[in-house]
Amino acid sequence: MINEPPVGVVGLGLMGSSIVAALLLAGHSVKAIAPLASEAAEAPGRIEGQLRQCREAGLVGALPPYLGMLTVSEDYAALAGCQLVIECVIERPEIKASVYAKITAVVAADCIVGSNTSAIPISELQKHIDTPARFLGIHWAEPAFMTRFLEITCGEQTDPVFAERVFRLAHRWGKEPTLLRKDIRGFITNRLMYAVYREIFSQIETGHATAEDVDKAFRYDAGSWMTLMGIFRRMDYLGLKDFNAILPRLFPQLSNSTEVPEIMQRMVREGARGVHNDHGLYPYEPGEGQQWDDAFARFNREIHQLAAEYSAGKVKAYLQ
Amino acid sequence: MINEPPVGVVGLGLMGSSIVAALLLAGHSVKAIAPLASEAAEAPGRIEGQLRQCREAGLVGALPPYLGMLTVSEDYAALAGCQLVIECVIERPEIKASVYAKITAVVAADCIVGSNTSAIPISELQKHIDTPARFLGIHWAEPAFMTRFLEITCGEQTDPVFAERVFRLAHRWGKEPTLLRKDIRGFITNRLMYAVYREIFSQIETGHATAEDVDKAFRYDAGSWMTLMGIFRRMDYLGLKDFNAILPRLFPQLSNSTEVPEIMQRMVREGARGVHNDHGLYPYEPGEGQQWDDAFARFNREIHQLAAEYSAGKVKAYLQ
Q1: ipTM of the assembly?
Q2: Neighbours of A306 (CB within 10 A)
Q3: In the listed set A185, A215, A237, which residue is the last one of a domain according to the structure?
Q4: What CATH number is associated with residue A270?
Q5: pTM for the full model?
């Protein structure tokens, strides 16, 4: 891989760092650009910690070669020679636009530029880049080096050839990627989860259920089959018949609200940042938030290994 | 436990059998009533297989004592002396009503009667039973002996004392139960999942995504945190801020459809029963359906064990 062009990553916040780690583990050399000085200072240590976490999980061998493949810079000129650059800066179109201008000033016209956005339509972002055909969405899930999810999304002007190139590459990254040829706001998972949120908040606000109840139900019902089956396979598994009896009775009763739920408005007013400041939808003891971080890191390793036993190819092999 | 009254189960289809196995494993003696002769013939073998499955998973020791604690009968008189009877017959109110009449003819007035219904409101079913205060919903997830989910739901006339009694008992069954004091159609998980279905089918029907894409996204995104966190804890974990930016933009764009999706209507016309007749939303090779059954049985053991490491008490212990 020594002769391959490096991959660029712009933005070294939590998500950007974790994408850098994922790319290093996949054998790429990485040119990382830190637009904020604070990120440039913090990112290398964080990435090293993430690589150590992967080593402890048995995902990789010794560490030294990985770190030697990374350069961190504040200067976009370092991206020259990249064939793929992934942008993961803050979700503000005008900031992203200025980042795209700096990227395209130094890379070749056929260098793929991907955005990790989860909220802004690709077709909209695409208006802010030269040669928009090479622009697309590459949406990762945290922690990028340990999750199999990757959502590749074309905008209206994207040439599918570029999307297919990233799709193939994603398999080398250990992903189970999806490729959306049409750009929809919120992509797949966001839309599905926001459909859940709309219904769930209406149940909480009417006092029909508590947050604890909802989480228990989701963890122990959906959680008991989700990783194996997804939604449609689950329907096949249950036999389909009951769904058609229930769909027309339940659909009309679901929430169609367009309002931000009152409890979320209150969280904003109170400056709640969840586990990041021990103030959220749940009560937290001081320091408990950090401990949830540790629990999630441990859980991620375990669900990653469990999912590996049931990845598409292996379920098929098991079924034969 | 030898002096405890037995627990009754009426209806020995797939779900009823699996509830019987769960109760036997929890140390109850069980009086099982098979309203259909075919169920009476098939159920004991199936239950024995399920107990064997639990033994192989290391959940229990040797088998003989469990089977000795089970009697299967077509005669409701066997229920006399039960303090709890769980009904799990077909989802048709008039059939359930006739079952309740037969149960109440033989048990004491304070014997709790629970229904495993997932679709009919408890307040509605409650109209068909003598002494409705002792009637409530006890909703299990398949396979009942291996999942931690249990949704206990009061109807309008239910005395909460009975619901609390079942709630306490459920912990002995190894469950993480929820107790809904108000009766809502579809309870918690059904409403949340149907909110997902409404959105997902609209994405499929407009050609924005394929069933395979949706399942991949759900398995590898939601599946990577669901079992640990549920919905609200996940929001706290992500920091809450982004949600308030996205909620008002995405809610108005979600599907509000009340129609049964065309693909589901087609499945009904075609007699599709999913893995049960190798004809469903996915294509199946002959016999592949049965193999999904085996894969799910194996997965269930593993996710059950993984979830055990992160049950409420243990996460707390880990966090301290």
Answers
A1: 0.83
A2: 18
A3: A185
A4: 1.10.1040.10
A5: 0.82
